[in-house]
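S.,

Sequence below, as promised.
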Amino acid sequence: QVQLVESGGGLVQAGGSLRLSCVASGSRFDSYIMGWYRQAPGKRREFVASIQSDGTTTYANSVKGRFTIARDNAKNTVALQMSSLEPEDTAVYYCNFHYTFYNYWGQGTQVTVSS
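The prediction came back faster than expected:
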């Protein structure tokens, strides 16, 4: 059974940094696209960043230059380094692994940025 577990969320002041991690188990994920999404209260879940199996990264415009995504296939992990955080970054952050018709989500981790 595939399981994704996020960690690293918390409360931080505006301008601060946080590092989120997601560890997957139950399969090998070398070919998967790994990504992060977020959902703020009252809003739809939105894309944040992704990294393909060859290391190609994609970012939402709102986080470009502030967030960095990285993966470690040997450890089945994906991380999101978040810097220069803004109150608008407050949300539940979810990791996502997908490949063809396989699509897995973590349970989410709360990130709160105070002004």
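The radius of gyration is 13 Å.

Coffee later?
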